[in-house]
Every structure is written in C-alpha cells, then in structure tokens.
Amino acid sequence: MKLIFDDQTFSFELLRTMGYTAFGGADVGECLSTAYRIEEGNFESWYEEWLKTAIRVHQEAEESNKQGCKTSAREFYLRASNYYRTAEFFLHGNPGDKRILETWRLSQSTFRQALSLLDQHWEIVSIPYEDTELPGYLYLAGNHPGPVLIVHGGYDSTAEELYFQVVISALERGYHCLVFEGPGQGSVIREQRIPFRHDWEAVVTPVVDYLTKRPEILSDKIALMGISLGGYLAPRAAAYESRLAACIANDGLFSFQVGAMAGAIGVNVSGNSDLSSSETENFIASIMAKDTGIRWGIENGKFTFLATSLEELVHKTEPFTLEGVAEQIKCPVLVCEAEHDHAFAGQPEQLYKSLRGPKTYLKFTAEDSAEEHCHFGALKLANHRIFTWLDHVLNK
Length: 396
What we know:
Blueprint: H1 8-19, H2 28-37, H3 43-66, H4 70-88, H5 98-115, E1 121-129, E2 132-140, E3 146-152, H6 161-172, E4 176-180, H7 186-190, H8 201-212, E5 217-227, H9 230-238, E6 246-250, H10 258-264, H11 278-290, H12 292-305, H13 310-317, E7 333-338, H14 347-354, E8 359-364, H15 379-393
Parallel strand pairs: 3-4, 3-5, 5-6, 6-7, 7-8
Antiparallel strand pairs: 1-2, 2-4
Helix pairs in contact: 2-3, 3-4, 4-5, 6-15, 8-9, 11-12, 12-13
C-alpha cells in the first residue's frame, strides 16, 4: 500500500500518522500537504516539514484555548501531538541530538493539554518499578469496577500515541485502559536512559501489582496487549505473569534477534565474524544509504538498546526469542497477523504454532484494507475484531 512515497518506510509512517484521523489524531489534508513537501528518503526533510505542520496546528490550539473554544483547542492539541511525534521519528541516528527531547516533549505536552480538555476520567500514573517508576495513563470507562486492558507499544511508539490506536476504542467498549511505557520506550529511554530488556515479565508484573490495588479494576479480568515489538514482549510477560486473563499479540512476534535479520540482508553474523571490521561496517553503511527501513531499524535499535555498534546490538537482542517460553503461556492468546507485514513476515504463525494453551489466529488481509504492519489504515476494523475476541474471552 503506497501512499505518496515510493519509499516503503516513508509511505508506511505517513499511513500510520494519517490513520489516526479516524480517532482525532490527524486530518487528511494536513498530512497530505506535509508529505508532498518532503524530499523522499531524506530524514531531515521529514523532520522539518512535520515540525512546521505541528507548530502551525499547535498555534491554532493555543489561540483556540485563549478564546475559550474548548473543543477546537482539544482537537488541535491532539493533532499537534501526533505531528510532533511523527517529526521526531527519524532523529535517532544521533542520540545526542537535542531535538529528540525537545520534539518528543512537545508531543507529550500538547497531548496532556488535550487531555485537560477532555470530559472523560483519566490520570497520569507512576508505577513503581525496581528503583524508579514507569510512566503511564489510566483511563476509566465508568464509575463501576470493570475489566481493564493494559497496553504497551514496541520498538518506537509512545504512550501518547496509543491513545489514538487503542484507548478510544477500549473506552467505547466499556474497558478501562492502562497505557504505560517500559524500558526502551518513550520517556523511559529518552529521559531515564533505561534500555529494552527481554524478560518483560519483570516490567508487566509491577503494572499488574498496581492495578490489583485499584478499586475500579476487576482483578480477574486483566488483559494485556503488546503492539509491534510488543507482540514479543506481551507473550513473554504472559508466560510468567499468571494473573493475566488474556494476551493480545498485535502483531505476533516469535523472535527479535538483530543477528538473524542482519544475516538475511547479507551481513555475516557467524560466530567467527567481526562485525566491527571496516569491511563489514562499509557494507552495512552502503545498505543503510540505500534502504531507509534498514537505516532507521539499526539507528533506532542502537538508540533504544543503548548499543554503540551493530555488534553490540546483535548481542543485546540475542535473548529476544520465545523459544522454550511460548508453550508456558496458560491464558488465552490472540495472535494477529498482517498479510503484507513489511517488518515481521512469518513471525505470527511461528508464535501461534508454538503456543500450547488456548489460542486464536486472526489474519488481516489486503481485502480488509488491513494488510499493513499492525493494520494501520484500518484501525477501526482491527479494533472491532480484537475487542470482539476479548469480549468473548472475558465473558464481557
């Protein structure tokens, strides 16, 4: 599914941003006009043009707020938040770039300004985790105890973005929703500098602990959804956290080992290879120069894993596999697949086959208009099917 750009990565990220139009996170004309100004494959051009749009929409929000136009201000703030997030997306090649924090903080602050203009109940929460805290948002669908869906993203999403992707749909269907950022994600990597970890149960268990103390939550109806890389992280947590009533892998991911992915593009990652050799580095650089997806994937990997080299990134992602783990999951699992997933083709099926407990496989196709990674562009349909499954599993 190509949108404006021939470059697959740029096309997909535009689809991702524009897909939130259905939930108030974008407007079609704003996205298209921004995209037409961007030089294809140019990360700086991407940043500059999305920043211009974000600033303009942000200014509209501020003016509306001053005039007391609550609804308009909220709508503008929400879109500005998404556009700031999009602008920041390709900046991670230089972790010291001050624009990363500046732009991300604008995305967060505009989102929170929008929340302050919402009528529904929400809270900014801090969840105790080891010697620090994990940030999140708790959204309540009503005043009575009810089921809750925990949602976390993956390799690159933020807690604010997940409001558009999942939270609105959850609330409409009567689910409380707790969205949080763990190691390697959002503010945890940007401000606390805590990288990803493979044993995600160490992250989810404190979140479940927190929820079981909340009177609004039915403790026997706590479900977990992981998105993108979260399609590995959530099942990993479910294998060891027995209080989860259901797990959703959107989309399913059996392993996230950069070594295997590097091998698939011709990089020698055998035991006696030297990934730091000038020959290998030059080869990788040549591939990154031609392929924006590979370039972004490696740069973001170094950023979120605090790796200084591809060799270190390969080493740090080696434990990211559900081999010998998936079969331990006892709660019902929904494994989603996107027919033309550019990121993890074949992985959902591998995860599904390894599960031994109750399981459901849900494939989204081009005919559904939902074939892209995590079904961007068809989130209304995806959420309908996912929550239909969850309603059945939780007897809601």
